[in-house]
Amino acid sequence: MSLLTKSVKNRFAQSYSTIKFSSRKFVNYPIQNKTHSGSFPFLLNPARESKSRKTGQTEIRGPYYSPMGKRYLSDILETMGPYVDSLKFAGGSFTLYPENELREIIELAHDYDVKVSTGGFIERVLLAQGIGDQKGLIDKYMKKCKDFGFDTLEISAGFISIPSSDFLRLINKASTLGLIPKPELGIQFGSGGGVLDPSLTAATTKQDIQHLISRAHLFLKETSTPLLMIESEGITENVPREQWRTDVIARIIQEVGKENVMFEAADPEVFTWFVKNYGADVNLFVDHSQIVQLECLRQGIWGTFETWGRVVRFAE
Q: Cβ distance 298 to 48 under 8 Å?
């Protein structure tokens, strides 16, 4: 090997890292700038919360409507990592992933201080428990999630009816196993996963807002739950703009507390409305494709007719 070839090889080895995917190897840039503040920090809002933050959190949807591998996620986090607090696997999509690839995605998220959530797949697991040799399935599911490195176990009941006492037991079981419980609450029965069934507009599918608020108070008081997810169906999702249940949102924020909830808002019109009406520090769940648009809005960098030049913060 010539001195020139050896020098080039050494420089190459220092500049790149090799990441292994199954039996193949791909050359990739080393992870860096995990906590960057943008290329123009003097133009960004100094009041923007940094990680780990209690308010102004953004959870992004991972794979579901589109696949997501480590290279795709790496592009997102390498550029937008400081603005992403959590990555959520929707619709049980993580069950389709090969074990090594799933672990690599979760580890990559952790490299950028991003927590990883299971999404509300536990509803499907609850339906399967006790069938045949499936006893103890909930314990097995939670322990496996912990083993893979998931941080957050979302506990939803949009499609099923479950007593609050059982809901509490699930929350406490997740906590005992070292997972962060994240109960999901809503006002529409049969909701989840972008359901478009016209029958869901019927009054029989609607639930009393007081029921949601009572459960929220119970879970926050009796468990270690740090944050509640608010399901968007029946509030803003698949609801005509003029029929949005803004009254429900107002009651949740007033009676439960803005810092204790995260609203599903995976639509630009919806998350724009939230920031406009409740400020840049509202906790929101959006699609991964919307993270740049949402952060520009939170920072007051850009916006629509309703928000351009109007989103401001103050910090001493």
A: yes
Residues listed for the chain: 316
**Which domains can be identified in the chain, with CATH numbers?**
50-188+209-298 (3.20.20.70)
Q: Residue 179 in contact with residue 150, Cβ under 8 Å? A: yes
119 exposed, middle or buried (CB, 10 Å; 0-12, 13-18, 19+)?
buried
Nearest residue to 117 via CA among 81, 82, 93, 100: 93
Q: Per DSSP, what are the bridge partners of residue 25?
A: 20
Which residue bears the tokens 């314990």? 139
Q: Give pTM, 2 decimals.
A: 0.85
Residue-level pLDDT, tens digit, the chain, 316 residues: 544 444 434 443 444 343 343 343 333 434 444 555 688 888 887 778 889 999 999 999 999 999 999 999 999 999 999 999 999 999 999 999 999 999 999 999 999 999 999 999 999 999 988 666 666 899 999 999 999 999 999 999 888 889 999 999 999 999 999 999 999 999 998 755 455 555 555 444 577 899 999 999 999 999 999 999 999 999 999 899 999 999 999 999 999 999 999 999 999 999 999 999 999 999 999 999 999 999 999 999 998 888 888 888 887 7
Check if the beta carbon of residue 117 is closer than 8 Å to that of residue 150: yes
